[in-house]
Write a structure and sequence with these properties.
By secondary structure, the protein is of the alpha/beta class. The chain is 40% helix and 24% strand. It contains eleven helices and 14 strands. A four-stranded parallel beta sheet has the order 2-1-6-7, sandwiched between helices. A four-stranded mixed beta sheet has the order 8-14-12-13. Helix 1 links the parallel strand 1 and strand 2. Helix 3 packs across helix 4 and helix 5 packs antiparallel against helix 6. The protein is globular.
Length: 297
C-alpha cells in the first residue's frame, strides 16, 4: 500500500522523525527539530488519558495520593499506530520511529505490527531506544540533525544504534512511595527510605532501570552531590548538549544544577525539560536527572 511514492510528493526533508511521548522533549525542541510525537496512555482507575494531551502530572499526583496507587500506563492501540504512520508516509519517503525501551513497554512492537499491516516495512524504521525520557530525546535530536543533512533512514538508524551504549540516563528520586506503589521496590525499602530520608540513584542500563547509590538528606544537598558524582564523566561527554529533566522540582534546585553545569564551562547547550505524565506516573514528584551522551574514548 505504501511501498511507492505518494503522488502528492514528499517534504523537503524526506525522513520523518517521530517518537512516543515518553521522550519528554519540550514543545520548543519538537518544533525546532521537526519532530512529531504520539501519546501513550495513562489509566487512572477506569478512566483513560493521553500523555501530554488531556492529563497533567499534577492531576496524576493528586489521584495517586488520594487512591494510594500508581496509575497504569499503556502503549498506543494498533489502530492509533497505523493512523500515525499513515499520516507520515503520505508526506515522507521514510519514517524513523523512536519508542521507549522494549523492556518497559510494548510500544515498539505495536509500531512494527502497524508498519507490517501497511506493507511499509521497507520505509518504516522502528528503533527501540533502550532508554526513557530525554535518554530517548538525546537520540531523537541526533537523528533529526542527520535527517536535515539528507541522510537516509538506514544511515540514521545505524548511527543511532552505535550511539546508544553511550547515552547516560540517570535520576535521583525524592520519594520511594511511587516506586513502591508501582511494584518497583518493597514496602520495607520504601519505609526505610522515608524514615532515613534515603534517595536512590537510578540509571538506565541495557534498557532497564537499575538502582545504585543511596543518597541521604535533604533533596538540595542530595542533588548537588549527585551532579558532583557525575562530573568526571560529564567532563568528557559530548559537549553539544546536556539535559536537566525533572518531574516537578523546586526552582532553586533546578537553578543550582544549571549553575553546576555552567561552571564546568563544557556544554554548548543546557536544556531543561519537564517529564511527561507517563514518566512521572512511576517516579513521582521531585525526581531530577542529568542526561547526556558520554565520550567514546
Amino acid at each position: 500500500m505504501y511501498k511507492k511514492m505518494n503522488e502528492r510528493g514528499y517534504n523537503m526533508r524526506t525522513v520523518a522523525i517521530i517518537s512516543d511521548s515518553t521522550c519528554d522533549l519540550s514543545a520548543e525542541l519538537l518544533e525546532k527539530y521537526k519532530i512529531t510525537t504520539f501519546p501513550l496512555h495513562i489509566h487512572l482507575g477506569e478512566d483513560e488519558y493521553s500523555d501530554g494531551v488531556n492529563i497533567t502530572p499534577e492531576q496524576i499526583y493528586e489521584w495517586s495520593d488520594a487512591n494510594k496507587a500508581t496509575p497504569k500506563t499503556s502503549a498506543l492501540s494498533p489502530f492509533e499506530a497505523k493512523e500515525c504512520l499513515e499520516k507520515q508516509l503520505l508526506t515522507h519517503k521514510e519514517v524513523i520511529c523512536f519508542c521507549i525501551s522494549e523492556d518497559m513497554s510494548s510500544c515498539a512492537s505495536v509500531m512494527r505490527m502497524a508498519a507490517n499491516e501497511l506493507e511499509a516495512e521497507e520505509r518504516v524504521f522502528v528503533i527501540d531506544s533502550r532508554n526513557l525520557s530525554t535518554g530517548i530525546g538525546l537520540q531523537i535530536i541526533e537523528a533529526a540533525i542527520l535527517a536535515e543533512q539528507g541522510k537516509t533512514a538506514q544511515e540514521i538508524k545505524e548511527h543511532i544504534l552505535s550511539l546508544q551504549p553511550f547515552v547516560r540516563a540517570s535520576f535521583v528520586v525524592d520519594t520511594l512511595t511511587y516506586l513502591y506503589r508501582g511494584g518497583r521496590c518493597s514496602g520495607v525499602a520504601a519505609f526505610a527510605g522515608s524514615t532515613l530520608k534515603l534517595h536512590p540513584y537510578i540509571s538506565v542500563v541495557d534498557g532497564k532501570m537499575q538502582p545504585g547509590k543511596k543518597y541521604r538528606g535533604k533533596m538540595d544537598k542530595v542533588i548537588r552531590e549527585y551532579v558532583e558524582d557525575l562530573k568526571n564523566e560529564l567532563k568528557t561527554a559530548n559537549k553539544e548538549r546536556v539535559f536537566i529533566t525533572h518531574s516537578g522540582c523546586e526552582q532553586s534546585i533546578i537553578d543550582m544544577v544549571r549553575n553546576q553545569l555552567e561552571e564546568m564551562g563544557w556544554f554548548e547547550e543546557i536544556l531543561i525539560t519537564r517529564a511527561g505524565s507517563v514518566i512521572t506516573s512511576h517516579c513521582g514528584p521531585g525526581t531530577l536527572g542529568v542526561l547526556f551522551i558520554a565520550g567514546k574514548e
